[in-house]
Fold this sequence. Notes:
- The structure is a homodimer.
- In chain A, 48% of the residues lie in helices and 15% in strands.
- Chain A is of the alpha+beta class.
- In chain A, the strands form two sheets. An eight-stranded antiparallel sheet of chain A has the order 2-3-4-5-1-8-10-9.
- In chain A, helix 11 packs antiparallel against helix 12 (308-317).
- The model of chain A is unreliable at 355-359 (pLDDT under 50).
Amino acid sequence: MKLNDITRRAASWLSDSGPKHDVVISSRVRLARNLLGMPFPGRCTEDQRRNICHTVTEAIKKSGICDDQITLNMADYSRLDRELLVERHLISRQYAQDEHTRSVIVSGDEKLSLMINEEDHLRIQLLYSGLRLKQAFEEINNIDDSLARHLDYAFTPEYGYLTACPTNVGTGLRVSVMLHLPGLKLSGEIERAMRASRDMKLAIRGIYGEGTEALGDFYQISNQLTLGKTEEQIVNDFTNMFIPAILDYERKARQQLIEKNRLEIEDRMFRALAVTKSSKLMSSDETLDRLSMIRLGINLNCINDINLDTVNELYLLSRPAHIQKLHNAELAPRERDEVRSNMLRDRLAENRKTGKKNP
Amino acid sequence: MKLNDITRRAASWLSDSGPKHDVVISSRVRLARNLLGMPFPGRCTEDQRRNICHTVTEAIKKSGICDDQITLNMADYSRLDRELLVERHLISRQYAQDEHTRSVIVSGDEKLSLMINEEDHLRIQLLYSGLRLKQAFEEINNIDDSLARHLDYAFTPEYGYLTACPTNVGTGLRVSVMLHLPGLKLSGEIERAMRASRDMKLAIRGIYGEGTEALGDFYQISNQLTLGKTEEQIVNDFTNMFIPAILDYERKARQQLIEKNRLEIEDRMFRALAVTKSSKLMSSDETLDRLSMIRLGINLNCINDINLDTVNELYLLSRPAHIQKLHNAELAPRERDEVRSNMLRDRLAENRKTGKKNP
């Protein structure tokens, strides 16, 4: 399998519709692991980094955790290819921009990715559609166990897993969900929800992690601390407490909007759909905003002739690197806006033709 | 014929497409006339105003200038009905809001309207689609001559026709054209064009005359002075000099836009059409802006499946009083926005179904 194979379709965590998918786009669990007796990547020599890549890659092969895999040696890939992986949430932006020896191993369905020599020696990530943190947590535990048979992790009974950044020390686990919160945004309650989340020690970020804006009403919510809590506690708190609370809040906001301001809200949805189907130039940020309204329209049963999967797919395919990969060329922003508009029009027209309906 | 008969269709000056209709919507000539030995309406008693109404109405009947006519005694009509007549350019806004005895006589095709007891005893207006000032001027001259046989006008050899406002003294003629200038607006050259027009002693106003904004890129251009120029000079200057210059300027601006910024301009046109076909709430001002872009799209052959007549018609039918008359009820602004959206969607869908094409 090659990188190009994954460019032209949606990642499974986006194209499958998991539980609570009206609000929860995806669930992500990530483990930070480091090898015993090696400096953290930031302090490694290139030789050491090569060693780590080799050791971890071999361990992954032996462990059999990932059959249909693709190993991407970052040095072999262009800036655009790496940006594509960022857009698909397979690697972090920092990792893409780094210049040190590093490689990432991705499963064919893109649910699993293993970054070698990011901030830690190994970052294991599992990404699922919908709210499936428990399932993801169980699976990543198995993966972690399998790898541990072939790798010596840096671990102390007192602190747990040692990591480059103190916030990851302990379980090394980060749990996050990507939420679509247009209801809270439109009703003006998003700020209050974000303050409440911060009070619960949750980190809230935009769609592409730290420092990115909440484009298209997407919010990524994750745990801030891993020390002093068991992994099960973290996952349970998320699954049983935090997320249901926000989910409920968002669904109520949507219901209120449709009951009290149906016309205003329908107006926005139908305009968003019409414009996305008709524009000749559309920026990626505008696209996310328009898709957000279309997605809301589908979830509120106002828009019935567009498939939710199509919209989810377009979130990804409309991003700048994807647009350029689809077009097989580096493009200036205005050219991207043109190619993007054409793509959006085609895909939304196709969606109609196939007559796919929402389930 | 009754007022209601004219509500549901476009005025002929809008639905016919006259010469140079890509830029010139309509041509208007107006004569201000007063009766000898009577104070101007602003200084009349109600008795005198009634006398004037009677005298002028009788003269119109005897003159035979208008067969299929409708006489509207303003006092019999509601605020909404009067507003409708303003939107159709049959009476002035001041005249609609006035409370004195007054009546207007309108021809069945709405080309001719005769306002009694506006600022002057009699205002005769002829309205044609496209650039047809000469034809309109010849016709209004004939009308004026016919009426003069039955009315004694206030006239002095030194000043010409006497009028309530000194700017009308002389010929009493005002010549104006309504221009659609989206090219100059989009290219940012409209201010320069307006300054140039003012230098030529032309008055530039919005779509509904003095003090109204240039909604939908419509501009009404008229002569400012009537004293010291013959009527023929005024009409000739307009037809042979002023209007061709602006027309040329606007057409060049459009051509430049389409040559240098085709995508940007198409983007705006197609978005405007898509939004107009899909909105659930649309204000009358937004409607004019959207229709302006659609009209430009049709004239530049970018939009081929919408009929120009339909768009012209919608300019009128989407105005607040028309919306309420169509709906047979007084409506609050938000209700109007809803009815307007539905009407726009229906009419644009109908236009497609009938398969009417632009000539």
